[in-house]
Amino acid sequence: MQPTLLELRVERMSYPGGEAILQEFALDISSGEIASIVGASGAGKTTLLRIIAGLETRFSGKVLFDGKERKAPGPDVQIVFQEHRLLPWLRVVDNVAFALNGGLGDEAHDQVRNALVDVGLGDKLQRWPWQLSGGEEQRVALARTLVRPPRLLLLDEPLRNLDMLSASALLRVIERIVRERTISVILVSHNIEDAVALSDSVHVVAAHPMRIKRTIPISLVRPRARTSMDFSESCAEVVKALERVQSEQPMPTIPSEHSKSNP
Amino acid sequence: MISSVVRLSIAVSIGSALGIATGLLLSQAPRLRDFLNPTIRLMAPVPVIAWMPFVIATVGTDEPYKIFMVALATFFIMNGHAFDGGTSVSRRLIELALIYEKPFHERILKIILPAASPLIFSGLRLSLALAWVILMFVEFGSAKAGSEGLGWFVADARALGKVEEEYAGVLLIAILGLITDSVAASMCKRAARWSLEPQTS
Protein backbone atom coordinates (compact mmCIF):
# COMPACT_ATOMS: atom_id res chain seq x y z
CA MET A 1 0.00 0.00 0.00
CA GLN A 2 1.44 3.34 -1.08
CA PRO A 3 1.52 6.17 1.47
CA THR A 4 -1.23 8.77 1.20
CA LEU A 5 -0.09 11.87 -0.69
CA LEU A 6 -3.22 13.98 -0.62
CA GLU A 7 -5.92 14.11 2.03
CA LEU A 8 -8.64 16.53 1.11
CA ARG A 9 -11.37 17.41 3.60
CA VAL A 10 -13.69 20.18 2.52
CA GLU A 11 -16.40 21.06 5.03
CA ARG A 12 -18.04 23.61 2.80
CA MET A 13 -17.20 25.63 -0.26
CA SER A 14 -19.52 28.14 -1.89
CA TYR A 15 -19.11 31.30 -3.92
CA PRO A 16 -20.48 34.45 -2.26
CA GLY A 17 -24.28 34.37 -2.25
CA GLY A 18 -24.46 30.95 -3.90
CA GLU A 19 -25.40 27.49 -2.71
CA ALA A 20 -22.74 25.05 -1.55
CA ILE A 21 -20.64 23.60 -4.36
CA LEU A 22 -18.83 21.19 -2.06
CA GLN A 23 -20.03 20.00 1.32
CA GLU A 24 -18.45 17.32 3.53
CA PHE A 25 -16.29 16.29 0.59
CA ALA A 26 -13.40 13.92 1.22
CA LEU A 27 -10.83 12.57 -1.22
CA ASP A 28 -7.62 10.64 -0.59
CA ILE A 29 -4.96 10.06 -3.22
CA SER A 30 -2.00 7.82 -2.54
CA SER A 31 1.45 8.27 -3.98
CA GLY A 32 1.52 7.25 -7.64
CA GLU A 33 -2.24 6.76 -7.81
CA ILE A 34 -4.13 7.85 -10.91
CA ALA A 35 -7.73 8.79 -10.17
CA SER A 36 -10.44 10.18 -12.40
CA ILE A 37 -13.49 12.21 -11.53
CA VAL A 38 -16.47 12.02 -13.85
CA GLY A 39 -19.81 13.75 -13.48
CA ALA A 40 -22.16 16.31 -14.94
CA SER A 41 -20.94 19.70 -16.18
CA GLY A 42 -21.13 22.39 -13.54
CA ALA A 43 -20.84 19.89 -10.70
CA GLY A 44 -17.78 21.69 -9.29
CA LYS A 45 -15.01 19.45 -10.59
CA THR A 46 -12.88 22.37 -11.73
CA THR A 47 -13.43 24.10 -8.38
CA LEU A 48 -12.24 20.93 -6.66
CA LEU A 49 -9.01 20.94 -8.68
CA ARG A 50 -8.50 24.63 -7.93
CA ILE A 51 -8.82 23.95 -4.20
CA ILE A 52 -6.25 21.15 -4.40
CA ALA A 53 -3.90 23.36 -6.45
CA GLY A 54 -4.17 26.08 -3.80
CA LEU A 55 -5.73 28.60 -6.19
CA GLU A 56 -9.09 28.64 -4.40
CA THR A 57 -9.02 29.53 -0.72
CA ARG A 58 -12.65 30.42 -0.06
CA PHE A 59 -13.57 27.16 1.64
CA SER A 60 -13.62 25.67 5.10
CA GLY A 61 -11.67 22.49 5.61
CA LYS A 62 -8.12 21.47 4.88
CA VAL A 63 -5.81 20.12 2.23
CA LEU A 64 -3.14 17.83 3.64
CA PHE A 65 -0.25 17.15 1.29
CA ASP A 66 2.34 14.66 2.53
CA GLY A 67 0.72 15.00 5.95
CA LYS A 68 1.27 18.77 6.07
CA GLU A 69 -1.38 21.41 5.53
CA ARG A 70 -0.98 23.05 2.11
CA LYS A 71 -1.98 26.68 2.04
CA ALA A 72 -0.45 28.21 -1.08
CA PRO A 73 0.05 27.15 -4.68
CA GLY A 74 3.42 25.71 -5.65
CA PRO A 75 5.10 23.56 -8.30
CA ASP A 76 4.63 20.31 -6.34
CA VAL A 77 1.00 20.36 -7.47
CA GLN A 78 0.59 21.46 -11.08
CA ILE A 79 -2.48 21.74 -13.22
CA VAL A 80 -3.24 21.54 -16.92
CA PHE A 81 -6.19 23.87 -17.22
CA GLN A 82 -9.14 23.49 -19.56
CA GLU A 83 -7.75 26.43 -21.52
CA HIS A 84 -4.07 26.20 -22.29
CA ARG A 85 -2.94 29.42 -20.54
CA LEU A 86 0.17 29.88 -22.64
CA LEU A 87 1.77 33.31 -22.48
CA PRO A 88 1.17 34.72 -25.98
CA TRP A 89 4.33 36.86 -25.91
CA LEU A 90 6.63 33.88 -25.38
CA ARG A 91 7.65 31.33 -27.97
CA VAL A 92 6.83 27.67 -27.29
CA VAL A 93 10.28 26.97 -25.83
CA ASP A 94 10.05 29.94 -23.44
CA ASN A 95 6.51 29.05 -22.41
CA VAL A 96 7.71 25.64 -21.27
CA ALA A 97 10.79 27.17 -19.65
CA PHE A 98 8.48 29.42 -17.63
CA ALA A 99 7.98 26.50 -15.24
CA LEU A 100 11.70 26.50 -14.44
CA ASN A 101 13.36 29.06 -12.25
CA GLY A 102 16.56 30.73 -13.33
CA GLY A 103 17.85 31.32 -16.82
CA LEU A 104 17.56 29.07 -19.84
CA GLY A 105 21.03 27.49 -19.72
CA ASP A 106 22.11 24.43 -21.71
CA GLU A 107 20.79 21.98 -19.15
CA ALA A 108 17.45 23.77 -18.84
CA HIS A 109 17.21 24.00 -22.62
CA ASP A 110 17.68 20.23 -22.89
CA GLN A 111 15.01 19.65 -20.27
CA VAL A 112 12.59 21.88 -22.16
CA ARG A 113 13.39 20.21 -25.47
CA ASN A 114 12.90 16.74 -23.95
CA ALA A 115 9.55 17.73 -22.47
CA LEU A 116 8.44 19.00 -25.88
CA VAL A 117 9.73 15.89 -27.64
CA ASP A 118 7.76 13.80 -25.12
CA VAL A 119 4.52 15.47 -26.20
CA GLY A 120 5.44 15.26 -29.88
CA LEU A 121 6.37 18.89 -30.47
CA GLY A 122 10.14 18.61 -30.74
CA ASP A 123 10.07 20.51 -34.04
CA LYS A 124 8.02 23.49 -32.85
CA LEU A 125 10.26 25.06 -30.22
CA GLN A 126 10.44 28.44 -31.92
CA ARG A 127 6.76 28.80 -32.82
CA TRP A 128 4.48 31.45 -31.32
CA PRO A 129 1.38 30.15 -29.51
CA TRP A 130 -0.90 31.62 -32.20
CA GLN A 131 0.83 29.43 -34.77
CA LEU A 132 -0.32 26.25 -33.01
CA SER A 133 -3.53 24.28 -33.28
CA GLY A 134 -5.77 23.87 -30.23
CA GLY A 135 -4.41 20.40 -29.57
CA GLU A 136 -0.81 21.57 -29.90
CA GLU A 137 -1.41 24.41 -27.45
CA GLN A 138 -2.73 21.89 -24.96
CA ARG A 139 0.35 19.72 -25.47
CA VAL A 140 2.66 22.67 -24.82
CA ALA A 141 0.73 23.28 -21.59
CA LEU A 142 1.30 19.64 -20.67
CA ALA A 143 5.02 19.91 -21.48
CA ARG A 144 5.18 22.92 -19.16
CA THR A 145 3.98 20.77 -16.26
CA LEU A 146 6.30 17.87 -17.13
CA VAL A 147 9.51 19.90 -17.42
CA ARG A 148 9.48 20.32 -13.67
CA PRO A 149 7.58 17.18 -12.63
CA PRO A 150 5.07 17.73 -9.83
CA ARG A 151 4.19 15.19 -7.14
CA LEU A 152 0.55 15.56 -8.07
CA LEU A 153 -0.68 16.43 -11.55
CA LEU A 154 -4.19 17.79 -11.98
CA LEU A 155 -5.68 17.42 -15.44
CA ASP A 156 -8.81 19.44 -16.18
CA GLU A 157 -10.18 18.12 -19.47
CA PRO A 158 -6.71 18.17 -21.01
CA LEU A 159 -7.74 16.35 -24.17
CA ARG A 160 -10.79 18.42 -24.99
CA ASN A 161 -9.32 20.03 -28.11
CA LEU A 162 -7.80 16.88 -29.55
CA ASP A 163 -9.12 14.43 -32.08
CA MET A 164 -9.63 10.88 -30.85
CA LEU A 165 -6.35 9.42 -32.10
CA SER A 166 -4.17 12.28 -30.86
CA ALA A 167 -6.03 12.18 -27.56
CA SER A 168 -5.35 8.50 -26.98
CA ALA A 169 -1.72 8.95 -28.10
CA LEU A 170 -1.23 11.83 -25.69
CA LEU A 171 -2.93 9.88 -22.93
CA ARG A 172 -0.36 7.12 -23.42
CA VAL A 173 2.41 9.72 -23.12
CA ILE A 174 0.88 10.99 -19.87
CA GLU A 175 0.51 7.43 -18.60
CA ARG A 176 4.12 6.56 -19.39
CA ILE A 177 5.57 9.68 -17.79
CA VAL A 178 3.49 9.69 -14.62
CA ARG A 179 4.16 6.01 -14.02
CA GLU A 180 7.90 6.35 -14.69
CA ARG A 181 8.16 9.19 -12.22
CA THR A 182 5.51 8.07 -9.72
CA ILE A 183 3.43 11.19 -10.19
CA SER A 184 -0.08 11.02 -8.76
CA VAL A 185 -2.81 12.22 -11.08
CA ILE A 186 -6.36 13.48 -10.75
CA LEU A 187 -8.07 13.60 -14.14
CA VAL A 188 -11.33 15.41 -14.69
CA SER A 189 -12.93 14.33 -17.93
CA HIS A 190 -16.22 13.93 -19.70
CA ASN A 191 -14.74 11.18 -21.78
CA ILE A 192 -15.36 7.87 -20.00
CA GLU A 193 -12.95 5.97 -22.24
CA ASP A 194 -10.10 8.34 -21.43
CA ALA A 195 -10.84 8.01 -17.73
CA VAL A 196 -10.88 4.22 -17.89
CA ALA A 197 -7.76 4.09 -20.07
CA LEU A 198 -5.67 6.11 -17.62
CA SER A 199 -6.99 5.52 -14.11
CA ASP A 200 -6.58 3.14 -11.22
CA SER A 201 -9.99 4.27 -10.00
CA VAL A 202 -12.90 6.33 -11.33
CA HIS A 203 -14.96 8.45 -8.93
CA VAL A 204 -18.48 9.14 -10.13
CA VAL A 205 -19.81 12.35 -8.60
CA ALA A 206 -23.23 13.91 -8.14
CA ALA A 207 -23.78 17.67 -8.12
CA HIS A 208 -25.34 20.34 -5.83
CA PRO A 209 -23.35 19.90 -3.67
CA MET A 210 -20.73 17.70 -5.27
CA ARG A 211 -20.17 14.34 -3.59
CA ILE A 212 -18.65 11.03 -4.59
CA LYS A 213 -21.46 8.56 -5.23
CA ARG A 214 -19.40 5.63 -6.38
CA THR A 215 -15.77 4.66 -6.77
CA ILE A 216 -15.02 2.06 -9.42
CA PRO A 217 -11.57 0.47 -9.27
CA ILE A 218 -10.08 -0.24 -12.71
CA SER A 219 -7.67 -3.14 -12.49
CA LEU A 220 -7.09 -3.79 -16.20
CA VAL A 221 -3.49 -4.57 -17.10
CA ARG A 222 -1.47 -1.80 -18.71
CA PRO A 223 -1.07 -0.81 -21.47
CA ARG A 224 -4.81 -0.94 -21.96
CA ALA A 225 -6.24 -1.70 -25.38
CA ARG A 226 -9.45 0.23 -25.95
CA THR A 227 -10.69 -2.49 -28.25
CA SER A 228 -10.60 -5.25 -25.63
CA MET A 229 -13.76 -6.71 -24.12
CA ASP A 230 -12.63 -6.00 -20.55
CA PHE A 231 -12.10 -2.38 -21.44
CA SER A 232 -15.61 -2.05 -22.84
CA GLU A 233 -17.05 -3.70 -19.75
CA SER A 234 -15.25 -1.26 -17.46
CA CYS A 235 -16.53 1.66 -19.53
CA ALA A 236 -20.05 0.26 -19.38
CA GLU A 237 -19.83 -0.03 -15.61
CA VAL A 238 -18.85 3.64 -15.31
CA VAL A 239 -21.58 4.73 -17.70
CA LYS A 240 -24.18 2.79 -15.70
CA ALA A 241 -23.02 4.37 -12.45
CA LEU A 242 -23.12 7.79 -14.08
CA GLU A 243 -26.64 7.22 -15.39
CA ARG A 244 -27.85 6.08 -11.99
CA VAL A 245 -26.36 9.15 -10.34
CA GLN A 246 -27.97 11.40 -12.96
CA SER A 247 -31.38 9.76 -12.49
CA GLU A 248 -31.21 10.34 -8.74
CA GLN A 249 -30.47 14.04 -9.24
CA PRO A 250 -33.44 16.39 -8.80
CA MET A 251 -34.35 17.75 -12.23
CA PRO A 252 -33.50 21.43 -12.59
CA THR A 253 -36.67 23.52 -12.46
CA ILE A 254 -37.18 25.52 -15.64
CA PRO A 255 -40.37 27.64 -15.65
CA SER A 256 -42.38 26.75 -18.73
CA GLU A 257 -43.95 29.30 -21.10
CA HIS A 258 -47.36 28.12 -19.90
CA SER A 259 -46.75 28.84 -16.22
CA LYS A 260 -45.25 32.21 -17.08
CA SER A 261 -48.22 33.42 -19.10
CA ASN A 262 -50.84 32.29 -16.57
CA PRO A 263 -51.74 34.88 -13.92
CA MET B 1 17.22 71.74 -32.77
CA ILE B 2 19.59 69.31 -31.08
CA SER B 3 18.92 70.80 -27.67
CA SER B 4 15.16 70.41 -28.15
CA VAL B 5 15.53 66.76 -29.14
CA VAL B 6 17.87 66.09 -26.21
CA ARG B 7 15.48 67.77 -23.78
CA LEU B 8 12.55 65.83 -25.18
CA SER B 9 14.42 62.51 -24.99
CA ILE B 10 15.57 63.03 -21.41
CA ALA B 11 12.19 64.27 -20.21
CA VAL B 12 10.14 61.58 -21.94
CA SER B 13 12.52 58.87 -20.72
CA ILE B 14 12.30 60.02 -17.11
CA GLY B 15 8.53 60.60 -17.22
CA SER B 16 7.83 57.27 -18.95
CA ALA B 17 10.10 55.21 -16.74
CA LEU B 18 8.53 56.61 -13.58
CA GLY B 19 5.03 56.49 -15.02
CA ILE B 20 5.28 52.87 -16.22
CA ALA B 21 6.97 51.68 -13.02
CA THR B 22 4.42 53.30 -10.71
CA GLY B 23 1.47 52.38 -12.93
CA LEU B 24 2.37 48.69 -13.04
CA LEU B 25 3.27 48.62 -9.35
CA LEU B 26 -0.02 50.21 -8.30
CA SER B 27 -1.97 47.86 -10.56
CA GLN B 28 -0.59 44.86 -8.63
CA ALA B 29 -0.40 46.19 -5.07
CA PRO B 30 -3.96 46.78 -3.83
CA ARG B 31 -3.03 48.49 -0.55
CA LEU B 32 -0.60 50.88 -2.18
CA ARG B 33 -3.19 51.53 -4.87
CA ASP B 34 -5.89 52.44 -2.34
CA PHE B 35 -3.43 54.75 -0.66
CA LEU B 36 -1.94 56.58 -3.65
CA ASN B 37 -4.31 56.23 -6.55
CA PRO B 38 -6.95 58.78 -5.49
CA THR B 39 -4.25 61.47 -5.36
CA ILE B 40 -2.77 60.51 -8.74
CA ARG B 41 -6.21 60.33 -10.39
CA LEU B 42 -7.04 63.74 -8.94
CA MET B 43 -3.84 65.33 -10.23
CA ALA B 44 -3.76 63.67 -13.66
CA PRO B 45 -6.43 65.83 -15.34
CA VAL B 46 -4.86 69.11 -14.17
CA PRO B 47 -3.31 70.77 -17.24
CA VAL B 48 0.46 70.61 -16.87
CA ILE B 49 0.67 74.32 -17.63
CA ALA B 50 -1.20 75.03 -14.40
CA TRP B 51 1.81 73.69 -12.49
CA MET B 52 4.08 76.21 -14.17
CA PRO B 53 4.10 78.90 -11.45
CA PHE B 54 4.89 76.34 -8.72
CA VAL B 55 7.63 74.75 -10.78
CA ILE B 56 9.22 78.08 -11.67
CA ALA B 57 9.06 79.18 -8.02
CA THR B 58 10.83 75.94 -7.05
CA VAL B 59 13.44 75.31 -9.72
CA GLY B 60 13.60 78.56 -11.73
CA THR B 61 13.25 78.84 -15.49
CA ASP B 62 16.37 76.99 -16.59
CA GLU B 63 16.93 73.48 -17.88
CA PRO B 64 15.43 71.58 -14.90
CA TYR B 65 12.18 73.52 -15.32
CA LYS B 66 11.81 72.58 -18.99
CA ILE B 67 12.60 68.95 -18.40
CA PHE B 68 10.39 68.73 -15.34
CA MET B 69 7.35 70.15 -17.16
CA VAL B 70 7.65 67.73 -20.08
CA ALA B 71 8.41 64.77 -17.80
CA LEU B 72 5.38 65.64 -15.66
CA ALA B 73 3.06 65.61 -18.69
CA THR B 74 4.52 62.27 -19.82
CA PHE B 75 4.34 60.79 -16.34
CA PHE B 76 0.57 61.09 -15.93
CA ILE B 77 -0.22 59.67 -19.37
CA MET B 78 2.16 56.73 -18.96
CA ASN B 79 1.05 56.08 -15.39
CA GLY B 80 -2.60 55.91 -16.49
CA HIS B 81 -1.91 53.64 -19.45
CA ALA B 82 0.40 51.30 -17.51
CA PHE B 83 -2.11 51.13 -14.65
CA ASP B 84 -5.01 50.29 -16.98
CA GLY B 85 -2.85 47.74 -18.80
CA GLY B 86 -1.76 46.16 -15.52
CA THR B 87 -5.23 45.90 -14.02
CA SER B 88 -6.67 44.33 -17.17
CA VAL B 89 -4.27 41.37 -17.15
CA SER B 90 -6.23 38.14 -16.86
CA ARG B 91 -6.25 36.55 -13.41
CA ARG B 92 -5.62 33.27 -15.22
CA LEU B 93 -2.12 34.31 -16.23
CA ILE B 94 -1.33 35.63 -12.77
CA GLU B 95 -2.29 32.22 -11.34
CA LEU B 96 0.53 30.71 -13.44
CA ALA B 97 2.99 32.95 -11.63
CA LEU B 98 1.57 31.70 -8.32
CA ILE B 99 1.90 28.03 -9.24
CA TYR B 100 5.48 28.46 -10.42
CA GLU B 101 6.30 30.61 -7.40
CA LYS B 102 7.54 33.60 -9.37
CA PRO B 103 8.64 36.46 -7.10
CA PHE B 104 6.77 39.77 -7.34
CA HIS B 105 9.31 41.48 -9.61
CA GLU B 106 9.28 38.53 -12.03
CA ARG B 107 5.50 38.56 -12.08
CA ILE B 108 5.65 42.23 -13.08
CA LEU B 109 8.40 41.77 -15.68
CA LYS B 110 7.33 38.47 -17.24
CA ILE B 111 3.55 38.73 -17.16
CA ILE B 112 2.19 42.18 -16.33
CA LEU B 113 4.61 44.28 -18.42
CA PRO B 114 4.32 42.26 -21.65
CA ALA B 115 0.56 41.98 -21.27
CA ALA B 116 0.28 45.74 -20.75
CA SER B 117 2.81 46.65 -23.45
CA PRO B 118 0.36 47.38 -26.29
CA LEU B 119 -1.44 49.90 -24.07
CA ILE B 120 1.86 51.29 -22.79
CA PHE B 121 3.13 51.93 -26.30
CA SER B 122 -0.07 53.64 -27.38
CA GLY B 123 0.43 55.80 -24.27
CA LEU B 124 3.97 56.53 -25.41
CA ARG B 125 2.76 57.87 -28.76
CA LEU B 126 0.26 60.07 -26.98
CA SER B 127 2.97 61.23 -24.56
CA LEU B 128 5.35 62.17 -27.36
CA ALA B 129 2.70 64.27 -29.08
CA LEU B 130 1.94 66.12 -25.87
CA ALA B 131 5.64 66.33 -24.98
CA TRP B 132 6.34 68.34 -28.15
CA VAL B 133 3.54 70.75 -27.32
CA ILE B 134 4.71 71.29 -23.75
CA LEU B 135 8.34 71.57 -24.82
CA MET B 136 7.57 74.28 -27.38
CA PHE B 137 5.50 76.09 -24.78
CA VAL B 138 8.23 76.13 -22.15
CA GLU B 139 10.89 77.07 -24.70
CA PHE B 140 8.68 79.94 -25.91
CA GLY B 141 8.00 81.06 -22.38
CA SER B 142 11.56 81.08 -21.16
CA ALA B 143 12.94 82.62 -24.31
CA LYS B 144 15.80 84.90 -23.51
CA ALA B 145 19.12 85.67 -25.09
CA GLY B 146 21.38 82.61 -25.12
CA SER B 147 18.49 80.13 -24.83
CA GLU B 148 18.42 77.29 -27.26
CA GLY B 149 15.74 75.13 -28.74
CA LEU B 150 13.21 75.18 -31.51
CA GLY B 151 10.58 76.92 -29.41
CA TRP B 152 12.95 79.78 -28.73
CA PHE B 153 14.00 79.85 -32.41
CA VAL B 154 10.39 80.26 -33.57
CA ALA B 155 9.54 82.80 -30.88
CA ASP B 156 12.67 84.81 -31.63
CA ALA B 157 12.02 84.76 -35.39
CA ARG B 158 8.49 85.95 -34.82
CA ALA B 159 9.59 88.78 -32.52
CA LEU B 160 12.06 89.98 -35.15
CA GLY B 161 9.60 89.59 -38.04
CA LYS B 162 11.64 86.88 -39.76
CA VAL B 163 8.65 85.12 -41.25
CA GLU B 164 10.64 82.60 -43.33
CA GLU B 165 12.65 81.47 -40.30
CA GLU B 166 9.52 81.26 -38.19
CA TYR B 167 7.80 78.95 -40.66
CA ALA B 168 10.96 76.95 -41.24
CA GLY B 169 11.04 76.34 -37.48
CA VAL B 170 7.40 75.26 -37.45
CA LEU B 171 8.04 72.89 -40.36
CA LEU B 172 11.05 71.42 -38.58
CA ILE B 173 8.94 70.81 -35.46
CA ALA B 174 6.35 69.03 -37.61
CA ILE B 175 9.00 66.80 -39.22
CA LEU B 176 10.61 65.95 -35.88
CA GLY B 177 7.19 65.14 -34.42
CA LEU B 178 6.50 62.84 -37.32
CA ILE B 179 9.84 61.07 -36.86
CA THR B 180 9.39 60.50 -33.12
CA ASP B 181 5.85 59.24 -33.70
CA SER B 182 7.05 56.82 -36.39
CA VAL B 183 9.79 55.52 -34.11
CA ALA B 184 7.27 54.97 -31.32
CA ALA B 185 4.85 53.30 -33.72
CA SER B 186 7.47 50.84 -34.96
CA MET B 187 8.57 50.10 -31.39
CA CYS B 188 4.92 49.45 -30.60
CA LYS B 189 4.60 47.04 -33.50
CA ARG B 190 7.80 45.23 -32.58
CA ALA B 191 6.87 44.88 -28.91
CA ALA B 192 3.49 43.43 -29.85
CA ARG B 193 4.67 41.10 -32.61
CA TRP B 194 3.47 38.15 -30.56
CA SER B 195 -0.09 39.38 -31.00
CA LEU B 196 0.18 39.81 -34.76
CA GLU B 197 -2.06 36.94 -35.64
CA PRO B 198 -2.76 36.67 -39.33
CA GLN B 199 -6.06 38.34 -40.09
CA THR B 200 -6.83 36.01 -42.97
CA SER B 201 -8.44 32.74 -42.07
Q: What is the 3D form of chain B?
A: elongated
- How many strands, what sense, and barrel or not for the largest sheet of chain B? none
Distance, first to last CA of chain B: 48 Å
What is the SS-derived class of chain B?
mainly alpha
Describe this entry's structure for a reader.
The complex is a heterodimer of chains A (263) and B (201). Chain A has 8 helices and 10 strands. With 263 residues, chain A is an alpha/beta fold. In chain A, the strands form 2 sheets. Chain A has a 6-stranded mixed beta sheet with strand order 6-7-8-3-9-10, with helices on both faces. In chain A, strand 9 (201-206) and strand 10 (211-217) form a beta hairpin. In chain A, helix 6 crosses helix 7. Chain A is globular. The relative contact order of chain A is 0.16. With 201 residues, chain B is an all-alpha fold. Chain B contains 8 helices and no strands. Chain B has helices at residues 2-28, 30-43, 52-59, 63-87, 91-99, 104-141, 150-159, 163-191. Chains A and B meet through strand 6 of A and helix 5 and helix 6 of B.
What is the gist of this entry?
The complex is a heterodimer of chains A (263) and B (201). Chain A is an alpha/beta fold and 263 residues long. Chain A is built from 8 helices and 10 strands.
Furnish the topology, listing elements before pairings.
The complex is a heterodimer of chains A (263) and B (201).
Chain A: E1 4-13, E2 22-30, E3 34-38, H1 45-53, E4 59-65, E5 68-69, E6 77-80, H2 92-97, H3 106-118, H4 134-146, E7 152-156, H5 164-180, E8 184-188, H6 192-198, E9 201-206, E10 211-217, H7 229-248, H8 257-261
Parallel strand pairs in A: 3-8, 3-9, 6-7, 7-8
Antiparallel strand pairs in A: 1-2, 1-4, 4-5, 9-10
Helix pairs in contact in A: 3-4, 6-7
Chain B: H1 2-28, H2 30-43, H3 52-59, H4 63-87, H5 91-99, H6 104-141, H7 150-159, H8 163-191
Helix pairs in contact in B: 1-2, 1-4, 1-6, 3-4, 4-6, 6-7, 6-8, 7-8
